[in-house]
Design brief:
- The structure holds two protein chains of two kinds.
- Chain A starts with a helix and ends with a helix.
- Chain A is globular and about 30 Å long.
- Chain A has a single domain, classed as ACP-like (Non-ribosomal Peptide Synthetase Peptidyl Carrier Protein, Chain A), CATH 1.10.1200.10.
- Chain A is mainly α.
- In chain A, 22% of the residues are buried.
- By secondary structure, chain B is of the alpha/beta class.
- Chain B has two domains: 158 residues, Luciferase, domain 3 (Roll); 147 residues, Rossmann fold.
- In chain B, strands 1, 4, 5, 6, 7, 8, 9, 10, 11, 12, 13 and 14 form a twelve-stranded mixed β-sheet that branches. In chain B, strands 2-3 form a two-stranded antiparallel ribbon.
- In chain B, strand 4, helix 6 and strand 5 form a beta-alpha-beta unit.
- In chain B, helix 2 packs across helix 3 and helix 8 packs across helix 10.
- The two termini of chain B are 30 Å apart.
- Chains A and B meet through helix 2 and helix 3 of A and helix 5 and helix 6 of B.
- Bound molecules: zinc ion.
- The site of zinc ion has 8 residues of chain B, from loops.
- The site of zinc ion (ZN) has 8 residues of chain B, from loops.
- Chain A: InterPro entries: ACP-like_sf.
Amino acid sequence: MIDNKLKTIFATALGIDEAAISDELTYGSIPEWDSTAHMMLVAEIESQYDIMLDTDDIIDMSSPAKAQTIIAKYQD
Amino acid sequence: MTALLDLPPYDVDAAHKTPLLQAALGELTQHHYQQCQAFKQLINGQWPQFNADNAPSIGDLPFVNVRLFKELRLQSIGDDEVFKVLQSSGTTGKPSKIMLDSAAAALQSRTLVKIMQHWLGKQRLPMLILDHPSVIKDRRNFSARGAGIQGLSFLGRNHCYALKDDMSLDIEAISEFCDKFADTPVLLFGFTFMVWQFVVQQLAHQQQRFQLPQGILIHSGGWKKLADQAVDNFNFKQGVLTTLGVSRVHNFYGMVEQVGAIFVECEHGHLHCPSYADILIRRPGSWQLADKGEIGVLQLLSALPRSYPGHSILAEDRGRWLGDDDCPCGRMGRYFEVLGRLPKAEVRGCSDTFGQGGNL
Ligand SMILES: [Zn+2]
């Protein structure tokens, strides 16, 4: 499961309740997580974690768990 | 098929690509025949001898006239699986409607990114969008232009719009962008006509010049309106260099009916087929395959479309096949040029080949 910081980022970027963020949530599985929200999510992750995601990361970031893994990759 | 889609975009020569693409397209033809009633009727009516089991060569595959996507809702998925509907910008008549499920949408973005990474690198570059921001304001209902900008904006960061909502230049925003990123690679994206009319022309008129020496301009959207003003690719590039200081300019050709596997122009002005797509040229009227160098109608093949039967499409554009695997730029694959829209009479001619519209 993902940490609370990332959970808050997801809730803010997608405009949904934190309770709605589960492991089952994937890009496109709810109308709120569309391409516009995805870009907001990326921008929010980059600023909150002070990292720069590349285009592969953006494509791979299809679930909260994947996002957590990608962020971890930059924090080593 | 997965193997083909995993290959790099410009490293595969014809000897390796042809069997993979042929197998992928044959399988897609069979898939759509089974899943899409209208496609099945088209094949039965127009290609009664066609048998996907006989490993047909790419030139023998049935093709769908692009017009049919305007007239029919062609899909190989259930209505409940539709994730995204793409619409063409068609200036006249009904727009095409392209149905994607979530797998198709994901594959399309992944392929687009893989192709563009070749030209831009993996890093997301600061991005100057040569359009106005309200083009993507209504996120539930993008226009074709809005969808294009949204799709490409994945490749950038620090997005900045060069135009205001009234289509005038946002000089302040452009200046700030240029000051900030003058010494770094940046991505510029816009639709060909918009770039010319509202950026290059307006800057020239106001005698304003910017310098983005490490900029790469990617543009798309057809040359018709520019040809009417006698502006060709050379004039276009000159204008972009003079007003924006950008010398790396890549046009790309692609249509909403075959989104994802786009054809990007190389440094030698040739449009290149990526590993996942190909083109053929057909002679209007007989619809036989044309020879290299001969002008004809473009047929576009793509291994991507699985949710709608768009893997083999006859476009309404004229083009010329220039060569295979031997462009001076060193990229593998077929390269070609697009020579504008088909004259109306020939478009009618192509529709007639699919004249059994009544039972479709
Ligand atoms: Zn080339």
